[in-house]
Design goal:
Blueprint (H helix, E strand, L loop, with lengths): L6 H11 L15 H9 L7 E2 L6 E2 L1 E5 L2 H16 L5 E2 L21 E2 L9 E4 L1 H7 L5 E8 L2 E10 L1 H5 L13
Antiparallel strand pairs: 1-2, 3-7, 4-6, 5-6, 7-8
Length: about 180
């Protein structure tokens, strides 16, 4: 069983990213940063709030693995298994996608990108991602982000079948190699 991120850990993680506001020019700020952080931390859940310093919308997002992301993961694992376990290009014919939501699978530690930027657009499943796609592991239902930064995970444990929903059957997803 995986540990949930506590409310206090989420608040601490948000605070760690809020001080980036100090990089704004003084003339843009309408309020000192030391007054901004405490006001925002408890109000960025839900609809969020406008930042009193810069007026940018401050919101913590609760993400979940969508059925499209789950299908992409299963297909990527199948391609990866069938091609000698090398990096899989995101534009592989079997991985047709609309948008880049599949990249959010990194929030759960299900896929990884190469550290070398010359290999952009390539992915590999992690051990957890491989196990999850093959019905051998569970993950938290939600991952939280703020300002494109990972904050933590929470919620019940879900399987790949839960993520796929009623539209897809894991055992019927195939790829042509």
């Amino acid at each position: 069983m995986h540990e949930d991120t506590t409310d206090e850990e989420l608040r601490t993680n948000v605070r760690a990213h809020l001080p980036q506001l100090h990089k704004m020019p003084t003339h843009v700020r309408e309020m000192p940063i030391r007054e901004v952080v405490p006001r925002l931390v408890d109000h960025i859940v839900g609809e969020g709030v406008p930042c009193p310093a810069c007026k940018q919308r401050c919101k913590m997002y609760r993400r979940k693995v969508t059925s499209a992301m789950a299908v992409w993961l299963v297909k990527m694992v199948l391609v990866w298994d069938g091609t000698g376990r090398d990096w899989v290009q995101s534009n592989h014919p079997e991985l047709k996608n609309r948008g880049g939501d599949y990249a959010k699978l990194q929030l759960w530690g299900l896929i990884r990108a190469p550290k070398n930027t010359k290999r952009a657009g390539r992915w590999q499943p992690t051990k957890l991602g491989h196990r999850f796609a093959n019905k051998k592991a569970t993950i938290h239902k939600y991952a939280f982000t703020y300002n494109d930064k990972y904050l933590g995970k929470r919620g019940e444990q879900i399987t790949i079948d839960d993520a796929l929903g009623s539209k897809f059957n894991r055992d019927e997803i195939e790829v042509a190699l």
